[in-house]
Structure formats: C-alpha cells, structure tokens
C-alpha cells in the first residue's frame, strides 16, 4: 500500500553501504521505521536533508502489513527549522524532545495529537526568542495528560487552597496521581511524595493550564529548570517502566 503522511524524523542510522534506517513519528501511523535506499550517495540521494533528526517532512512510503520496516520512496521538508542547529540550547532541547518521543511511544500506534504536539514543539524550539527548554517541559506535561496520568496541581489535596492564590514554600508531589500536599499540611505528619519547591509547583501549574506556545513566556531560573526536569522524568519513570534518563538533556546542561 502506498501512503503519504507528515512525519518528524526521530532517529536515523546508516545501513549497509548506501542506505539509512530511519525512525519517524508520523501523523497517520505513529512511530514507524523505514528504509531509505541510496541516501549516502550524492547522485542517488533523492531525499536531500529531509531525513536528518528533528526534520518535519512529508513522506511517501510503501507500507506492508505485518512488517516492521517499510520502504521510503519520497521525502521532502515541509517546514524548514533552520535555527534548531544554531545554538546548543535549541539543538539539545530538540534532541531531548525526539529522544523522549522515541523512547515512550510504541511502534505503529497512531496518535495524531502527539504528532501535532511534537511538530508544534519543534517549531517553538526553532522560533521562540528565549526559554526554549520550557517547550520541552510543557510537552512533557501535555504528554502526561495524553497518557492518562496528567498532573493535577491546581490545589492542595488536603486543605484545598489553590496554587494560583497561595505561595507555598514547597509541596510534596504524589507520583501515583500527580496531586500534591502543600508544605503547611505536610507539617502535621509524614506524607509521601517527591518534594518540590513552591516555584516549581507554580510553574507546573502554569504549564498544565496553558498551551505549548505560551510556555516560553516564563523565565525559569536554571536551578528550577533542573528541578522541574528531574521531577518530570521521575514522574514519567513512575508511570512508564523502563524509561531512561534523557541523554541529550545531560548534554544541554553540560554546555551551560
Ligand atoms: Zn494544604
């Protein structure tokens, strides 16, 4: 069956002398693996740079039932994201994003909303004037919602005081259900959960309430950024077994 779809390139590796095996996150089929022949010979490479990781491309492929590798026949860039390679912050944030999607999504399970979030996030990382790491955090918060274990941090589960009106010094985030117990309530006894700062609680709440595009408005100090990313990854690990720490993310912070 010949099919056409938009896709984000998650990963590409050389195969034999002239080919590449490319992992895509496609709009119509979710994560899918394709073989692109002749990509490493300048004369026969009809794909140009459309198979580089983080590229948003339109692809045509021969899709075979019950196979896990399909033949790519055509690919061209839909939206050039030229600034993604400009500086290390944009690049490693973008790489963390595709590493995350490649890690948590199963093969050939369609999820158009994840595709749209991914494409939108890459465009934002490419164009946002600052705070591009926020896009990754916002994406993770939306991903939790999509997977059915979204954060629910609008109020303390014990006293019901609302996050937006209070300035809690800290809170205990429960990894099991994404709710929290504020610092005042936790004084009364032992509570379970991961301790987060009051600032990080506010930021997670903001990300929960707003879209990806608005996320870059927040100026998050690096120490809070590190905390929020560690918490988000711990939350992900709790809900999806076998989730690794994002390698590209450690590169991001090694450059700062
Ligand atoms: Zn409380």
What ions, cofactors and ligands are bound?
zinc ion
Indicate the CATH topology of the largest domain.
de novo design (two linked rop proteins)
Task: Name the beta content range.
Answer: 15-25%
CATH homologous superfamily of the largest domain, by name? Recombination protein O, C-terminal domain
Roughly how much helix do the residues carry, as a percent range? 25-40%
Give the radius of gyration.
20 Å
Top-tier CATH class of the largest domain = Mainly Alpha
In what order do the strands lie side by side in the largest sheet? 1-2-3-5-4
Q: Structural class of the helices, strands and pairings? A: alpha+beta
Q: What is the helix tally?
A: 7
The topology string of helices and strands comes to EEEEEHHHEEHEHHH
General form: elongated
User: Mean pLDDT, rounded to whole units?
Assistant: 93
Our count of domains comes out at 2
CATH architecture of the largest domain: Up-down Bundle
Main sheet summary: 5 strands, mixed, barrel
Explain the overall architecture.
- The chain is of the alpha+beta class.
- It folds into 2 domains: 1-80, Nucleic acid-binding proteins (OB fold (Dihydrolipoamide Acetyltransferase, E2P)), CATH 2.40.50.140; 83-256, de novo design (two linked rop proteins).
- The chain is 35% helix and 22% strand.
- The chain contains 7 helices and 8 strands.
- The strands form 2 sheets. The protein has a 5-stranded mixed barrel with strand order 1-2-3-5-4. The protein has a 3-stranded antiparallel sheet with strand order 7-6-8.
- Helix 1 (88-104) runs antiparallel to helix 2 (112-127), helix 1 (88-104) runs parallel beside helix 3 and helix 2 (112-127) packs antiparallel against helix 3 (133-147).
- The model has no long low-confidence stretch (mean pLDDT 93).
- Bound molecules: zinc ion.
- Zinc ion is lined by residues 156, 158-159, 161, 182, 184-185.
- The site of zinc ion has 7 residues, from helix 4.
């Amino acid at each position: 069956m010949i099919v056409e779809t938009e896709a984000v390139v998650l990963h590409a590796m050389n195969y034999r002398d002239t080919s590449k095996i490319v992992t895509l996150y496609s709009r119509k089929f979710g994560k899918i693996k394709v073989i692109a022949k002749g990509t490493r010979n300048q004369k026969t490479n009809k794909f140009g740079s459309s198979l580089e990781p983080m590229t948003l491309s339109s692809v045509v492929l021969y899709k075979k039932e019950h196979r896990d590798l399909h033949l790519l026949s055509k690919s061209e860039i839909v939206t050039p994201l030229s600034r993604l390679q400009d500086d290390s912050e944009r690049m490693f944030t973008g790489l963390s994003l595709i590493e995350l999607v490649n890690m948590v999504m199963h093969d050939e399970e369609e999820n158009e909303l994840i595709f749209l979030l991914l494409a939108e996030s890459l465009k934002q990382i490419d164009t946002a004037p600052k705070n591009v790491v926020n896009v990754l955090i916002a994406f993770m918060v939306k991903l939790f919602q999509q997977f059915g274990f979204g954060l629910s941090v609008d109020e303390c589960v014990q006293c019901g005081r609302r996050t937006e009106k209070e300035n809690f010094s800290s809170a205990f985030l429960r990894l099991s259900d994404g709710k929290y117990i504020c610092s005042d309530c936790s004084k009364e006894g032992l509570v379970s959960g991961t301790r987060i700062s009051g600032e990080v609680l506010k930021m997670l709440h903001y990300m929960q309430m707003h879209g990806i595009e608005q996320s870059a408005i927040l100026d998050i100090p690096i120490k809070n950024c590190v905390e929020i990313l560690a918490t988000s990854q711990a939350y992900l690990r709790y809900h999806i077994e076998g989730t690794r720490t994002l390698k590209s993310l450690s590169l991001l912070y090694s450059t700062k």
